[in-house]
Amino acid sequence: MGKSEAARATRSPAEVYDEFFVPALFQQWGKRIAEIAQVGTGQHVLDVACGTGVLAAAAADRVGAAGAVIGLDPNEEMLSVARRKRARVEWKSGRAEDLPFAAASFERCVSQFGMMFFEDRVAALREMMRVLRPNGRLAVAVCDALDHSPGYAVLAELLHRLFGHAVAEAFRAPFALGDARQLLALCRDAGIARPMVQRYDGTVRFKSIGALVSTERACVWTLGGLLRRSAVRTAARGGG
User: Fold this and answer.
1) Which CATH number belongs to the domain containing residue 108 in this structure?
2) How many domains does the structure of the chain reveal?
């Protein structure tokens, strides 16, 4: 086991996510989503499914001392990491489908790469609209279709061959909302008037394919969790 892989093995899943996934994938999007949402000075902003706080931190930089940002996530490990980084952001536990805030509490509501995993996406969108003030703005980022991420598409096919359909499909889950028509249908079901879907390109920047796979294996929320569950099922069937 190399030094970097050993380091991953001693960290919590949230720490692995923040140290390796955030700079490789998610850091580039925080400022961009905050800009798309037109987050500005003095506003009150809610970041739903904030994770370790990339987008909430970007929003805090834009609202300044006169504004306020709340980062909400159901995962306490993620929030624990987030609290170490930005004391001025209020980090709160909660689910997107049942936001613990009064109606019309925020000028802006944002969410970055979380909606794919919501239990009830329509309910979450309704809740985010509920807490927005009149003339507020909602911006939600999701991953594009797997066809537009060729590196991950190849890895998904490899997982299919090695571990079967269930593991491969679970790995494809982050790309489940890559169809613009599906997104617009969800918005219509949530009662959102004049929704707009735009596509933006980003780059995944791991040092190597090996670093990508090692990081995925180290995190129980991604490939590591899938392979552990696959191994348990194999053992239960009497496999080696």
Assistant:
1) 3.40.50.150
2) 1
221 confidence band (pLDDT: 50, 70, 90): low
- Determine, yes or no, domain membership for 235: no
Residue 239 falls inside a structural domain: no
Is residue 224, in this structure, part of any structural domain at all?
yes
Task: List, for residues 174-204, the tens digit of each pLDDT value.
Answer: 888 999 999 999 999 999 999 999 999 888 8
Half-sphere exposure of 69 (CA within 13 A, CB side): 29
Does residue 132 lie within any of the structural domains? yes
Stretch among 44-58, 119-133, 203-217 having the lowest mean pLDDT: 203-217
DSSP 64: -
Please report how the helices 180-189 and 121-130 are oriented relative to each other, as an axis angle in degrees rounded to 10: 60
**Domain of 79?**
3-230
Number of C-beta neighbours around residue 122 at 10 A: 17
Q: Alpha helix locations (H) across the chain? A: 3-9, 13-16, 27-36, 54-63, 76-85, 121-130, 150-163, 165-171, 180-189, 209-218, 223-236
Helix, strand counts (H, E) of the chain: 11, 5
Q: How far is CA 231 from CA 13, 236, 240, in A?
A: 19, 9, 9
